[in-house]
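My main concern about presentation is that the manuscript never shows what a single data entry looks like. Each protein is reduced to its one-letter sequence and a matching series of backbone shape codes. For the editor and my fellow referees, an illustration may be useful. For illustration, here is how one protein appears when written out as sequence plus structure tokens:
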Amino acid sequence: MKYLLQFCIILAVSLVGELLNRFVPLPIPASVYGMVILFLALATGAIKLSHVRATGRFLIDILPLLFVAPAVGLVDSWATMQEFWLAVVVISLISTIFVIAVSGRITQFIINRKGGRK
């Protein structure tokens, strides 16, 4: 029952994100609205971490499984993508390297700001 309640909390936050996406005329995905709302709710204490921790960990554990459907979709649309697969690969590599570099810099900044590793 605990997992069901936690999952309902996460779904409710996602629903609010979907509603914001529908009614606020900004080009922001509903999932980003939902993540920001959940972050703010956790940061302010409106939702306690213990209210969503177990289900959040479960969802993270099965995250690779959630990528199966998009991967099958890519394989299914191979005929369309054959013309520009190299561009997709190059853009994916460049953006991945960029994300890794920015994430590393931000992590280093936060660690240095807090006084280094303990």
Q: What stands out?
A: The chain has a mean pLDDT of 92. The longest helix spans residues 85-113.
